[in-house]
Amino acid sequence: MLNEKQLIENGNAVIGIELGSTRIKAVLIDNKGTILATGGENWENHLIDGIWTYHQDEIWQKLQLAYADLAKTVKEKYKVILTQVKAIGVSAMMHGYLVFDKDGNQLVPFRTWRNNITLQSSQELTALFQYPIPQRWSIAHLHQALLNKESHLNQIDYLTTLSGYVHWQLTGERVLGIGDASGMFPIDTDRLDYNQAMLNQFDEHIKPYQLRWKINEILPKVLVAGQSAGKLTEQGVLLLDPTGNLQAGIPLCPPEGDAGTGMIATNCIKEKTGNISAGTSAFAMIVLEKSLSKRYPELDIVTTPAGKLVAMAHANNCTTEINAWVNLFGECLHLFGNKIQKEELFETLFLHALEGDLDCGNLLAYGFHSGEHNVGLSEGCPLFLHPVNGKFNLANFIRVQLYTAFGAMKLGMDILIEQEKVNITRILGHGGIFKTENVAQKILASALNTPLATMNTASNGGAWGIALLANYLNKDYANYTLENYLDQVIFKDIPMSLIQPEEEINEGYRRFMARYTQGIEIVKHITTLGI
Question: Could you tell me which residue ranges the Carbohydrate kinase FGGY N-terminal domain spans (predicted)?
Answer without folding.
Answer: 14-236
